[in-house]
Structure formats: C-alpha cells, structure tokens
UniProtKB/TrEMBL annotation:
Keywords: Transferase
Organism: Actinoplanes philippinensis
InterPro entries: Glyco_trans_2-like (IPR001173), Glycosyltransferase_2 (IPR050256), Nucleotide-diphossugar_trans (IPR029044)
Domain Glycosyltransferase 2-like: 21-174
Keyword check for Transferase: yes
Protein name per Swiss-Prot or TrEMBL: Glycosyl transferase family 2
Molecular-function annotations in GO: transferase activity
Domain of life: Bacteria
Keyword Transferase listed: yes
SUPFAM superfamilies xrefs: Nucleotide-diphospho-sugar transferases
Homology family: Belongs to the glycosyltransferase 2 family.
Residue numbers spanned by region Disordered: 269-309
A Pfam family hit: Glycos_transf_2
Length: 309
C-alpha cells in the first residue's frame, strides 16, 4: 500500500494552538488512573481511555475523574489494538499516547507538542537522550534496547536512541501512514493476535514513521516505576517479538521499493528491441571481423523474490 495521500500540509502550517487528544490504554488500572489524570496538563482537550476488558473499576474511575472522557472498548486484545482503537476515536489535531500505570509522565506532554508545532510530524520520547532517564529499566533490558537500537539504526539509517519506549506524539493527519491493523477485523478464531495488535506496535509505528519520510524528533523523557500492579512485559519474549518486527518492517520496506520499480522494469521489457543490424560491434581487439562478431548482450538475471505485503 502506498501513502502518497497522507496530508502533512496541516503540520507545516505550524498550528499555534492545536487541540490535543491523549490516548490511554487500560487493563485493571483503577488505582493508577487518579495519579495519571492528576498530571494531565490543561492543554489536553480530549482524553480517550481504551479499556481491554478490565475486571476492576477502571472505567468507572475514569468517568468519575474526567466526566468528558471518551471511553472506548477495544475490539480485540493487546496494546497495539488498544492504541489503534484509540487513534480512530481521537478528534484532536495532535495525538499523544501514554501508559496508564504512571510510568510515562503526562506533565511532559507540552514538550512533545512544542516540537510538533515547530515542524516535526512525529515526536518520540527517549529515556537516553538529553533530559531523559529511567527509574525502571534493568541492565538486561537496557542491553537489549541498545542492541535493538543498533539494528534499526543500521537497517533504516536512523538515529534512534530509545526504540522500545512507547511515549509518542504525532499529528493526527499522519495516522494513515502508520497503516495499523483494521480495528473492525475479528479476532482470529485460534486466539492469536493479529500482527500489530501486541507490544510490537511501538516499534512498528516508529519504523513506519521513518519509512514514510516523516520528520521524526526526540524528546528526553523520564520513565517512572509502575505505581501499582504488575507489568505485562516479558523481557525475552517481547524482545524477540521486537526483533521480529524490525526484520518484518525491513522486508516490508524493501518489498514496497521493489513494487515501485515494477513499472520501470515493465517498460524495459515492453520496449522494442534494437534491430540486429544496428547492434554495436564489440570493442575487443580480438574480434577480427566486425561483420560476424557483435557485442554480447548484457542481460541481468532476474531472480524471483517473494514480495512482502
């Protein structure tokens, strides 16, 4: 799929007073929401809470804290699907995605918005750039994050400092470029997640923003420990899933490039061949009779490479 229709003109207008929607995926976060909502800056014009079937009072607490909050029930499972459902419900000029456990600080949102107003299309939080820090990351996770950063920066020629951090903000007009899984599709009968419905969503949208040639910026961000409850992250399982995402997105990008070359290749195949009498004689000194010897055609072999959708 091509995204030439993506409208970034709105972004370049440098809206000085954009409306801002914040998307908060939730799953049994009733004790954390009061802390998160209390830090939301006044500039937020819309709060979209996407619930994944909480068994506690998460939805009730959200409505009590913010009666104007938009409550969305996600259509499948996983953080990726929750975010996609939230993006679809947003009406603000800018979308900010934060976590409900208190690990991302809502008070930093103005920093993200300021960079967007100054010209970026997509702004990524970083725990390891200037002004950033993490109170939660372990040495093992930091080592894995550094390795994944290196792979992405080499393959995509980027300069990410913190690939696996999910605090991002972007103009709503660029959402189509992220090409997220359709939220109306049913959950697979075998219970598995659709690709993009899980934690890989954070890596996926970062890479796709770069692949679409959007202006991507970074903001130093401080990660805090979860206030209450247990994290759903699994260091090894999710780490390999992120690596798989990187390789999948690299194949997707190359597949799109190959598809873009098809019209050119087809034009070469359909162009009329030059008459043999006009073929240029070989320049080799070993050819003694140019009437009988002609330069060999330089044909490039075409191997059939499976294309990624």
């Amino acid at each position: 799929m091509e995204f030439s229709h993506v409208n970034t003109n709105t972004d370049s207008d440098r809206l000085q007073s954009p409306t801002v929607s914040v998307v908060i995926p939730t799953l049994n976060e009733e004790r954390n929401l009061p802390h998160v909502f209390a830090k939301l800056p006044p500039m937020i014009t819309e709060v979209v809470v996407v619930d994944g079937g909480s068994r506690d009072r998460t939805v009730e607490v959200a409505r009590q804290l913010r009666p104007d909050a938009v409550i969305v029930q996600q259509t499948r499972t996983g953080k990726g699907n929750a975010l996609a459902c939230g993006f679809a419900a947003c009406t603000g000029d800018i979308i900010v995605m934060i976590d409900a456990d208190g690990s991302t600080d809502p008070a930093e949102i103005p920093l993200f918005v300021e960079k967007l107003i100054r010209g970026d299309h997509f702004v990524k939080g970083s725990r390891f750039s200037h002004g950033g820090h993490s109170h939660d990351i372990t040495r093992l996770r930091k080592l894995g994050n550094d390795g994944l950063n290196l792979v992405v920066n080499v393959l995509f020629r980027t300069h990410f400092t913190d690939l696996c951090y999910g605090y991002n903000a972007f103009w709503r007009s660029v959402v189509p470029a992220l090409d997220l899984p359709d939220v109306t599709l049913p959950r697979p009968a075998d219970g598995r997640k659709l690709w993009g419905d899980g934690f890989e969503i954070e890596t996926m949208i970062n890479i796709r923003a770069v692949a679409e040639k959007l202006r991507v910026g970074e903001v130093g961000s401080i990660e805090h420990e979860r206030i209450f409850g247990q994290s759903n992250l699994n260091t090894f399982k999710d780490g390999f899933r992120v690596l798989r995402t990187i390789l999948s997105e690299y194949g997707r990008m190359n597949g799109r490039r190959r598809r873009g070359l098809r019209p050119f290749v087809e034009s070469l195949r359909l162009s009329p061949a030059k008459p043999r009498s006009q073929a240029r004689p070989s320049a080799s000194r070993h050819v003694t009779d140019p009437r009988r010897e002609s330069a060999p055609l330089n044909r490039t072999s075409r191997s059939r490479v499976p294309l990624d959708d």
